[in-house]
Structures are given as C-alpha cells and as structure tokens.
Description:
Blueprint: E1 3-7, E2 10-13, E3 18-25, E4 33-39, E5 46-51, E6 57-59, E7 67-72, E8 77-82, E9 91-98, E10 109-110, E11 114-119
Amino acid sequence: xxxxxxxxxxxxxxxxxxxxxxxxxxxxxxxxxxxxxxxxxxxxxxxxxxxxxxxxxxxxxxxxxxxxxxxxxxxxxxxxxxxxxxxxxxxxxxxxxxxxxxxxxxxxxxxxxxxxxxxx
Length: 120
C-alpha cells in the first residue's frame, strides 16, 4: 500500500518560512519523481516544484528563488523549503509521486495535503 504523508504546514506571517516534508512508503522512492502541488480556494491545482529521480529540478516562476525542493532517498522523504512566504502562497500543498511529473503530467500517488496559510 502506497502512502505519502505530508507534514510541516501551518500559519505563518508574510516573509516567514516553512518546511514541508513528505514521507513515502510502499514505492521504490529512488525511482520516482516527486512533486509538490498546491491548490488555493477556487483555483486549479498547480505544480509548484518537481525533482526527478535523477535530481533534475523545476519550479514555477512565482516561487523561484524562494522555494527549494530536495529529496533524501535514504529516508524516502521529499522536502519543500519555503522562504519569503507571501499571502498568495496560501493553499493546500500536496505531495505527488510518479515515474514522471511535469506540467500537465501528474504522478500516480498523492498525499492527503497540508494547509499553508500566510497572513499579511
């Protein structure tokens, strides 16, 4: 049984930082691309950052220079370090795993989501 368990969300003031974690089980973690999506109320889910099995990384423009995705294959965990947070970063953040993840291509497995709220 595949499980992706996110943690680290919460309420933070604008300019603050949060670190999201996603612990995976039931998959061969090192062979999977890992992505972080987010969905704000009334908006479509969007891919925020992705790291391939080989370590290639991509971000959406709005988070470049502020967010950092990383993975620890020994711990089966992917992270999203979020700095200089803005109110527009407020959303539910979801972990996603699959053989390939990119804009328009979602991985097979999803976490339950973790709420990030940035106050102004």
